């Protein structure tokens, strides 16, 4: 019988002063991409360029870049990437190629030099936003 008043008091206290539990934000583990230290030779980039020039459209050209940039042992310099990006007809394709190739660039701190390749301001802004989130 002595237990009943304690239970009633505990239940009443819980209703009056509920324990406030703060939600815990999930921890998202984000690792910065590891960029390659060594860039392709001029001859290797010319080979990619030649293969891109044989494609019919921008989609096929992006596929060439994706097929060639798979190994982080050899990457691209920003100047080499700019040369490849100039093969695209649209800013959409240039942006897609730049975003894909970012983690394969050796001198990625110069990535924003690529904004000069875009003709429209919104693509320049999109590239800057991408860089800020991924640098």
Question: What shape does the CA trace take?
Answer: globular
Distance between the termini: 67 Å
* Major beta sheet summary: 2 strands, parallel
Rg estimate, integer Å: 27 Å
Assign the structural class, choosing from mainly alpha, mainly beta, alpha/beta, alpha+beta, or little secondary structure: mainly alpha
Mean pLDDT across every amino acid position? 85
Low-pLDDT segments, ≥5 res: none
The percent of residues in helical segments reads: 40-55%
How would you spell out the order of helices and strands?
HEHHEHHH
Q: How is the largest sheet built, in terms of strand order?
A: 1-2
- SS strand fraction: under 5%
| DSSP strand count | 2
Helix count from the secondary structure assignment: 6
Q: How would you explain this protein's 3D organization?
A:
This protein is an all-alpha fold and 135 residues long. 52% of the residues lie in helices and 3% in strands. The chain has a two-stranded parallel sheet. α2 (42-53) packs antiparallel against α3, α3 packs parallel to α5 and α5 (91-101) runs parallel beside α6 (121-134). The termini are far apart. The relative contact order is 0.13. The model has no long low-confidence stretch (mean pLDDT 85).
Secondary-structure blueprint:
Elements: H1 3-16, E1 38-39, H2 42-53, H3 58-68, E2 74-75, H4 78-85, H5 91-101, H6 121-134
Parallel strand pairs: 1-2
């Amino acid at each position: 019988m002595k237990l009943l008043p304690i239970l009633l008091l505990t239940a009443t206290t819980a209703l009056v002063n509920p324990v406030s539990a703060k939600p815990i934000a999930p921890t998202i583990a984000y690792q910065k991409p590891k960029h390659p230290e060594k860039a392709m030779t001029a001859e290797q980039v010319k080979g990619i360029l030649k293969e891109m020039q044989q494609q019919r459209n921008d989609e096929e050209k992006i596929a060439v870049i994706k097929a060639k940039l798979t190994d982080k042992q050899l990457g691209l310099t920003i100047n080499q990437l700019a040369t490849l990006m100039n093969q695209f007809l649209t800013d959409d394709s240039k942006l897609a190629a730049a975003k894909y190739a970012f983690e394969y660039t050796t001198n990625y701190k110069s990535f924003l030099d690529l904004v000069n390749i875009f003709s429209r301001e919104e693509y320049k802004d999109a590239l800057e936003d991408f860089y800020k989130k991924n640098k």
